[in-house]
Every structure is written in structure tokens, then in C-alpha cells.
Amino acid sequence: MIHLIIGNTGSGKTTYSNDLKIKTKGIIFSIDKWNSMLFLPDKKPNDGLEWFLERIDRAESIIMTLIEQLENSKTDSVLDLGFSKFEHREKFRKFANYHGLDLTTHFLDISKDTRLKRIMKRNKEKGETFEFEVTKENFDFMENWFEKPNESKMINGILISE
Question: Is the pLDDT of residue 96 over 90?
Fold first, then answer.
């Protein structure tokens, strides 16, 4: 089973994913951790969004090969990969369909105010789910970047709201 964890910045995707990983005895793939460990140390000040997206795409190619191996051993994959865009979610839906894999969508629909408070708290405390600081500018960018899943893509999905 593949679990797509969807939510805007600060919605609690990583916390939710960690809980789901325990419940399903699955393996979590968190793009924030991959970015923090593999990519951010090499980032130059003028590297922008395209620089990140290219690296994320390469990381996801590896993740897909690992998902196939996990499915063969009947182990769930919990994907905390952001999934801000419809096209990004479709990439994994098509992958699942092509390989005959079950997929469940989990959408964390949390208010902007709650998410911003969480981000500011996480930046300050640098707790368990902290990988890098999310600035107010980054947060505001994601408000316009994120595409909320439509009802047709949430059929048989799980909706988490406040």
C-alpha cells in the first residue's frame, strides 16, 4: 500500500506520517529529510526552485524503485513528499496504477493560521520534525503554490481537518 500524505506547509504531514508509519509498520519517505541531508549542504545562494525540483525528481526516481521492493515484501510506503501540485500527485497515482499497487490519499486540510503558528514554533524549538527553517516568505509562497485536492481525487481517501 502506498500512502500519499498531502497538505500545505505546516499542516502536520511529517507528524502524521510518523504516526501512520507506526500503525502500518511501513517505511516513511520524507522529502524534507532528503533535502536536508542530501541537497541543502550543496545549495548555493542563487539556486532557486528549479534547482530543488530537479533534485526532488531524481530522489523520487530512487524512491519509486524502493517502493516496488517494499511492495514485494508487503511493506507499506508512507510518502511525505509534499505533493503540493496535482501533477505531482498524479505521477504517483499513475506509478501505482501501472504497477497494480494500492494507493490511499491522506489530505491534512488545516487552516493557514494554525499552520503558520506551527511553522514559527518549529523554527524556534527545532524539535523532532525540524529539518530546516521555513521563513514567512517561504510559507507565503507555498500558499499560492499549493493545489488543494479536488473531491474526485479524494474518493476513498482520508481527510484530516481541525
Answer: yes
What confidence tens digit (pLDDT) does each residue in 123-161 have? 888 877 777 778 788 888 888 889 999 887 777 899 999
Q: Are 40 and 92 in contact (CB under 8 A)?
A: no
Distance CA 86, CA 98 (A): 18
Give the containing element (helix H, strand E) for 24: helix 13-24
pTM, full prediction: 0.85
Q: 130: number of CA atoms within 13 Å, CB side?
A: 15
* Order of strands across the sheet that contains 103-109: 27-30, 77-80, 2-7, 103-109, 158-161
Write down the CATH number for the domain with range 2-161.
3.40.50.300
> Is the model's pLDDT at 42 over the cut of 80?
yes
In the chain, domain spans:
2-161
User: What is the distance between the alpha carbons of residues 130 and 19, in angstroms, rounded to a whole number?
Assistant: 16
Indicate if the pLDDT at residue 102 is higher than 80.
yes
Instruction: Determine the residue type at 81.
Output: L
Closest CA to 149 of 62, 101, 91, 84: 84
Identify residue 17 by its one-letter amino acid code. S
